[in-house]
Amino acid sequence: MPLIDILNEDIIDLAVEGNNKDEVLHYLAGDLAKAGYIDDVEQFISDIYAREAEGPTGMGSHISIPHGKSFSVRKNGIAIGRTLNPIKWESGMSDDGFQDTRLIFLFCVSADESFARNHMMLLSELAGKLGNDARVARLADATTKQEVVHLICCDDEELEGTEVKETEEIVDLDIDF
Q: Which end of the chain is more exposed for a tag (fewer CB within 10 A), N or C?
């Protein structure tokens, strides 16, 4: 299943409100519930935190990819949020164990075993896309939901010539379950 098949502008928000990780996760989970992706926000958040307890999902470059499997999921997807303010997020990328996050890719995946393989393939595909500094820079500045979808799905060649700001590198993606 390609990323384009699960990206939906209804669950992309470029002005996520919240002052901490919990507020941001609830905000994005609320978007998922409104769009019919989950039926229980609190159970979904609990399942995300269970996965978060296994290892940090802050990936550097102000990006976090919280993920986990939940029986509250009715439809697989990725809620994408860019926060109005930096959010302190656990990360193995810094000495203090935290990073400032502005861009969140919240995976919404059913705990049904038939979805496990797709989940890992999608996570791997997204991680590969986010390894491109030009893509990350353009995602940080995107002004429309359509632009976000295009930037995630386009080939690296389309990003050539994009000026890249100095930023930290994404070097380790903890995607084990």
A: C
pLDDT per residue, tens digit, the chain (177 aa), is 778 888 999 999 999 999 999 999 999 999 999 999 999 999 999 999 999 989 889 998 999 999 888 999 999 899 999 999 999 999 988 889 899 999 999 999 888 776 666 777 888 889 889 999 999 999 999 999 999 999 999 998 888 765 544 444 444 445 444
The pTM for the full model equals 0.87
59: left (phi over 0), alpha (psi -120 to 50) or beta: alpha
Helix H or strand E segment including 75: none
**Residue 123 has which token pair?**
């996570």
| Domain residue limits, the chain | 3-159
